[in-house]
Specification:
Layout lengths: L1 H10 L2 H23 L31 H37 L1 H15 L3 H12 L3 H28 L2 H8 L4 H9 L4 H24 L11 H7 L9 H24 L6
Helix pairs in contact: 2-3, 2-11, 3-4, 3-6, 3-8, 3-9, 3-10, 4-6, 5-6, 6-9, 9-10, 9-11, 10-11
């Protein structure tokens, strides 16, 4: 298994390897970054605000004199894990509904398809703002809201795949054998959807990162004392005229994470090899 994975990585084009390196970099920082933070995340350690990089503060200080490096290391944890958790929940929920819809067919398929089309037609950020205003913005609620918003998008893709597979001969043979709906979904249809669904999971991850960062920039995302990368951009917006690292670094972190994920997704698509 590890040999096959190493071979696949070697066969990736350069952009895919760059994307993989960026994604792994931010994943490692999300897991171990807080332990490497040189200062407590909320400690006021600099008498100056928006100071530049130096030997004491590698990435300078923010608008309150806190260490930017420590803030970014902690913020990356919330950005990566909230986005990853929401993306996985969205794909799990959307794919489960799509399999149920495709196998049952008839009015069940019609009702679910129309309901998901209705939800999918709503602008994601506006929908998120309404839900956050109604239910609040705790970490758990943000995770569930972000997952709920992107279930319809995954459902549409998974349903299109499942509908095509359900019509295949091997599925009809399974039905003729008397296999139940769960067996057909789990063992006949789902294994043939894995590759496209992996790519879609990556896309959902990117969408959720941008959604959560946008909400945090508006002050409706991750709330103090927690902070994600979007929050770090918002709270240091006054440092933009002086090009303070406190605002540039988290903005570049969001950009590198999303660009890296997109490059990796593109490399994982069929035909994505060099």
């Amino acid at each position: 298994m590890s040999g096959a994975l190493a071979m696949r990585v070697r066969n990736m084009r350069l952009s895919g390897r760059i994307g993989l390196a960026l994604v792994l970099f931010w994943l490692v920082l999300a897991v171990g970054g807080p332990a490497l933070a040189p200062h407590p995340v909320g400690a006021f350690i600099d008498q100056e605000v928006f100071s530049g990089p130096g030997r004491t503060f590698w990435l300078g200080s923010d608008y309150l004199g806190r260490d930017v490096l420590s803030r970014v290391l902690w913020g990356s944890r919330y950005t990566v894990f909230l986005a990853l958790g929401a993306a996985l929940l969205a794909v799990l929920g959307g794919t489960s509904l799509a399999l149920f819809s495709a196998i049952r067919g008839g009015w069940t398929d019609e009702i679910l398809a129309r309901a998901m089309d209705t939800l999918n037609s709503m602008p994601s950020k506006i929908f998120a703002l309404v839900l956050v205003a109604a239910f609040g913005s705790s970490l758990t609620l943000l995770l569930l809201i972000a997952a709920f918003i992107y279930i319809p998008g995954n459902y549409r893709i998974a349903r299109a795949l499942a509908i095509n597979l359900v019509a295949m001969d091997f599925v009809q043979v399974a039905r003729a054998r008397g296999e139940g709906a769960f067996h057909i979904a789990r063992y006949e249809v789902l294994p043939n959807m894995i590759h496209p669904l992996l790519a879609d999971t990556g896309l959902r991850f990117v969408f959720v990162v941008l959604l959560l960062s946008g909400l945090s920039f508006l002050g409706l995302g991750v709330q103090p004392p927690y902070a994600d990368l979007g929050s770090l951009v918002r709270e240091n917006i006054s440092g933009l005229p002086m090009a303070a690292p406190a605002i540039i670094v988290p903005a570049l972190a969001i950009a590198s994470l999303t660009v890296g994920a997109n490059l990796l997704i593109d490399a994982l698509k069929p035909g994505g090899k060099a």
